[in-house]
Structure formats: structure tokens, C-alpha cells
């Protein structure tokens, strides 16, 4: 009995100490945690004595037991509800499976019915299906013709859109063409036929090189070409727009386009048409011009590709040297011809006035030497006159030999360029074969262009050399003639014969 009491006493002491310890801990914590316990439904009762504490513990255990029993009851009730819900879900699954089976059966029935209806439709259409197939083909082909024709540059694009939609519609098995649609197909075909044989003026938008749209007066010549006041323009079938050409073709064609654009109604003018509807015109614009073949004076220097004038042409460096040599030869020849022409005029004027020599021409200077040596013997006068003529020779024959050398060297340099071009051609054949002629075009262009440049320099320089030499010889001939005449007259006046000088 005492042991039982002792145990109870120890239990109460431990409980009191625990209660006081918990109370001390709760006092040290924040007031918010105490309020949280109160808010959660827990009631804190402070025991005033050990008996009261024992009573509180007893009541707490009874309360916990009641709560546990209530939780068990709630769990059992919920378990019963879950079983009911599971049963309802299983019933719904069975019902939905039945609906799915019915739908599958209905789907199969619909497939059979659709096949029967399609067969019935095919039977009722009969030859109409072939007719609609022809309409679909005609609409598609006609749309392609319209898109590739320059007539579409003037007419609105609704034609092609209508035909495209009709072709798509005829491709289905459910839509049929109406009478109005068939009539519109015939109308557009007849309209296009009429427009291909008509010269029409209209205002259209032209896409420039910079991408801007500019409204410009245009003239369409049937289904061949469209021209503006500046020349040809092209209808781009891919963009379905009128675009400006990168450059106009050669002058013989561009001039006809300008005349056609400016012609008055009823006026008949010559015009170069492109039967390929732009193909030949595009090739014509790609043809190299004379400036591209020969080159520009400073084009290659400005873009850094070479350091000589005209080196950006097809002749390359050799062609550039030929052109420069030719320019030098022509300048020298023309300069000498002009100088000799004026010298010849002065000599001719001096011949008419031999008694008054002037120092501005060779004959005048020759006469001055004669008048200064009237008292010398014939041999001395002959030597002095010969010396005077020899002193005039460099002035009269200056640079003529250079022109002659250029006329001979130019074709040789052209031959050199030909050999270099052929070497380039054979190198291209070795590397790439002969499948693409454009690969060999560079070397062949160099070979032929240098030959042409050499001949173009040689022919005029040969002619200029002949003319310059003739001018020089004519003046020298006058000097020789007058010199011999003066010596003969001097010998006759002195009565002494003239002896030959070696």
C-alpha cells in the first residue's frame, strides 16, 4: 500500500514539474503562439493544487478517448461513402461502354451509307464528272497562261484568282460549277484573246531598282512587250508585277521602244517585239556593252581590282596596255600632223616671198643662211645649206618613228593577249571540263578582245604614220628643192661649175 502511494506521489510530482516546465516555456515564447493555441480550440486550465491537476489530467484523458472514438466513427462513415461512390463510378463506366459500342456500330453504318451515297452520286453525275474534270483542267491551264502573259500587267488580278478558286472547287466531289461560273470562264478566255491583238495605253505601277512603286504611263503591244517613255519594261511572272529592267538593250532596239511609246494614235512606227515575251529581252540586256568590253578609264582603279586604266575590260591587263599605247600613238601622230600642217603653210607662204626670209619656218631659216653666205664659194655654200637642212630634219621627223613602232607592236601585243586567253581557256577545261561553255568564255573573251584591240590600234596608227610621214617629206622636199635651186643660182651668178660633194 505504501509502495502504491509512493508511486502515485512520484507520478504527481513529475506531472507537476512537467506542467510547471511547460508553463515556463510558454511564458518565454511569444504571445502570438499562445493566441494560436487558443484559436485552435484548445483550452488552457491552470491547476491551483495537485488535486486539481490530477482532476484535469483525468478529464483530459476522458476527452481524448471521446475524440478518438468520434474519429473512428467518422472514418467508418467515410469508408461507407467511398464504397457507394465506387459503385456509382463502376455503373457509369458500364453505361459509357455501352454508349461507345452503339456509336461504333453507328459509325460503321454511316460508312456504308456514305459509300452507297457516293456510288449513287457517281451514277447520277455520269458524264458530268468528265465535264467538270475538263473545266478544272481548262481553268488551271488558263490561269497559268494568264499569269505568264504581259496582258496581266494591265488587267486586274481577279481573273487568275477566280480561275484558281474554280479549279480547286472542281477538284472536290461535292461542289458543282454554276452557269455563271462557266460563262465567266468563256468571258475571260475571249477577253484575253482580244487583248493579245491590241495595242493599249494604261497607267501602271512600275517597280524600280530600289523597290519603290511608281505610277507611270505605259503602252502594251499585244502579248509581247510593255514599254514606257524611257524604253522597255518587263512583266515579272513570278511577282506578277511590272519591273524596271536592269538596263536597256542596245540603242537599235531601245530607240524603237521610245518611238513606240511617243507615237500618236494611228501612227505607224517600226518596233522591235520580243516573241518570247521577255526571254530575248532579258538576254539582250545581259549582252556586254562596248564600255564593258573595252573597260572604263578608272573603273578598275577605283574598285581596287587593278592599277591600269581600262584594265576592267575583257582584254585585261594586256588590253589595257594596248589601249594606252594606241592612245599615245594617236596623240603623237595627230600632234605632229597639226604641227607639220602649220609648218607647211608657212613654208608655202615663204616660197612666194623668197627675198624676205623669216625665222618662223625652215625655208626662211634656210634663206637666212644663204643671204649670210652670198660671198662664199659654191662648195662652202652647198655644205652650209646641207647642214641647215640636216638641222631642220629632227624637228620635221620627230616622233614619227615612234608612231611606226606602235603600229607594228600593237598587233603583236594583241597576239600575246590571244595566247594568254587561250592558256586561260585550256586551264579552265583542265579543271572543269567542257560541260559548261560559260567557264571557257572568260579566256576566249580575253583572246579575242586583245586581238581586236591590237588591230584597232594598228590600223589607225599605220594610216596616221603614212599621213605624218607624207607631211614631213613634203616639207623636206621643198627644202631640198629650194636648197638645190639656191646653189644652182649662186653658181650661175658666179660663173663657176658645181662639183659633187661626197
Detailed description of the structure:
The chain is of the alpha+beta class and 502 residues long. Helix content is 70%, strand content 6%. It contains 15 helices and five strands. The protein has helices spanning 2-28, 31-39, 50-125, 127-147, 158-170, 179-196, 251-262, 279-286, 290-294, 299-303, 316-351, 362-372, 378-397, 400-432, 437-494, and strands at 199-207, 213-221, 225-228, 231-236, 241-244. A five-stranded mixed beta barrel has the order 1-2-3-4-5. Strand 3 and strand 4 form a beta hairpin. The longest helix has 76 residues, at 50-125.
Measure the end-to-end span. Answer: 183 Å
* Gross geometry: elongated
With helices defined by DSSP (H or I, 4 residues minimum), what is the helix count? 15
Uncertain ranges: 19-42
Q: How many beta-strand segments? A: 5
* Biggest beta sheet attributes: 5 strands, mixed, barrel
Task: Write down the overall mean pLDDT.
Answer: 80
Keywords:
5-stranded mixed barrel; 502 residues; 70% helix; alpha+beta; elongated; 15 helices
Compact description:
This protein is of the alpha+beta class and 502 residues long. It contains 15 helices and five strands.
Secondary structure elements and pairings:
Blueprint: H1 2-28, H2 31-39, H3 50-125, H4 127-147, H5 158-170, H6 179-196, E1 199-207, E2 213-221, E3 225-228, E4 231-236, E5 241-244, H7 251-262, H8 279-286, H9 290-294, H10 299-303, H11 316-351, H12 362-372, H13 378-397, H14 400-432, H15 437-494
Parallel strand pairs: 1-5
Antiparallel strand pairs: 1-2, 2-3, 3-4, 4-5
Helix pairs in contact: 4-5, 4-6, 11-14, 11-15, 12-13, 12-15, 13-15, 14-15
Amino acid at each position: 500500500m505504501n509502495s502504491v502511494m509512493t508511486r502515485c506521489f512520484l507520478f504527481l510530482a513529475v506531472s507537476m514539474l512537467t506542467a510547471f516546465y511547460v508553463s515556463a516555456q510558454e511564458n518565454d515564447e511569444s504571445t502570438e503562439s499562445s493566441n494560436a493555441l487558443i484559436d485552435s480550440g484548445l483550452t488552457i486550465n491552470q491547476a491551483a493544487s495537485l488535486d486539481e491537476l490530477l482532476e484535469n489530467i483525468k478529464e483530459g484523458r476522458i476527452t481524448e478517448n471521446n475524440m478518438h472514438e468520434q474519429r473512428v466513427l467518422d472514418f467508418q462513415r467515410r469508408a461507407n461513402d467511398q464504397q457507394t461512390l465506387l459503385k456509382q463510378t463502376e455503373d457509369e463506366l458500364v453505361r459509357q461502354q455501352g454508349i461507345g459500342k452503339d456509336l461504333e456500330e453507328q459509325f460503321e453504318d454511316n460508312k456504308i451509307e456514305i459509300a452507297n451515297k457516293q456510288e449513287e452520286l457517281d451514277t447520277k453525275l455520269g458524264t458530268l464528272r468528265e465535264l467538270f474534270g475538263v473545266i478544272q483542267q481548262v481553268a488551271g491551264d488558263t490561269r497559268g497562261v494568264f499569269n505568264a502573259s504581259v496582258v496581266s500587267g494591265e488587267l486586274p488580278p481577279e481573273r487568275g484568282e477566280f480561275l484558281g478558286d474554280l479549279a480547286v472547287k472542281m477538284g472536290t466531289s461535292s461542289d458543282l460549277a454554276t452557269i455563271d461560273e462557266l460563262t465567266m470562264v468563256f468571258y475571260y478566255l475571249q477577253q484575253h484573246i482580244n487583248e493579245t491583238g491590241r495595242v493599249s495605253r494604261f497607267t501602271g505601277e512600275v517597280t524600280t531598282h530600289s523597290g519603290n512603286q511608281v505610277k507611270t504611263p505605259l503602252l502594251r503591244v499585244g502579248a509581247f512587250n510593255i514599254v514606257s517613255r524611257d524604253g522597255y519594261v518587263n512583266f515579272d511572272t513570278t511577282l506578277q508585277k511590272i519591273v524596271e529592267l536592269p538596263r536597256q538593250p542596245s540603242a537599235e532596239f531601245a530607240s524603237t521602244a521610245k518611238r513606240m511609246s511617243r507615237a500618236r494614235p494611228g501612227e505607224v512606227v517600226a518596233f522591235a517585239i520580243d516573241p518570247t515575251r521577255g526571254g530575248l529581252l532579258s538576254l539582250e540586256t545581259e549582252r556586254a556593252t562596248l564600255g564593258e568590253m573595252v573597260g572604263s578609264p578608272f573603273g578598275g582603279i577605283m574598285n581596287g581590282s587593278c592599277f591600269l586604266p581600262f584594265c576592267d575590260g575583257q582584254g585585261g591587263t594586256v588590253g589595257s596596255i594596248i589601249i594606252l599605247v594606241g592612245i599615245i600613238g594617236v596623240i603623237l601622230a595627230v600632234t605632229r600632223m597639226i604641227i607639220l600642217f602649220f609648218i607647211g603653210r608657212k613654208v608655202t607662204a615663204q616660197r612666194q616671198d623668197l627675198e624676205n626670209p623669216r625665222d618662223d619656218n625652215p625655208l626662211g631659216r634656210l634663206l637666212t643662211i644663204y643671204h649670210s653666205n652670198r660671198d662664199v664659194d659654191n662648195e662652202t655654200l652647198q655644205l652650209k645649206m646641207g647642214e641647215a637642212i640636216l638641222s631642220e630634219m629632227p624637228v620635221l621627223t620627230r616622233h614619227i618613228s615612234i608612231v611606226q613602232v606602235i603600229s607594228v607592236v600593237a598587233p603583236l601585243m594583241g597576239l600575246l593577249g590571244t595566247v594568254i586567253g587561250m592558256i586561260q581557256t585550256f586551264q579552265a577545261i583542265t579543271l572543269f571540263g567542257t560541260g559548261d561553255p560559260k567557264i571557257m568564255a572568260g579566256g576566249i573573251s580575253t583572246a579575242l578582245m586583245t586581238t581586236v584591240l591590237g588591230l584597232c590600234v594598228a590600223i589607225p596608227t599605220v594610216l596616221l604614220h603614212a599621213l605624218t610621214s607624207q607631211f614631213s617629206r613634203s616639207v623636206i622636199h621643198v627644202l631640198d628643192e629650194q636648197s638645190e635651186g639656191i646653189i644652182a643660182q649662186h653658181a650661175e651668178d658666179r660663173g663657176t661649175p658645181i662639183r659633187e660633194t661626197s
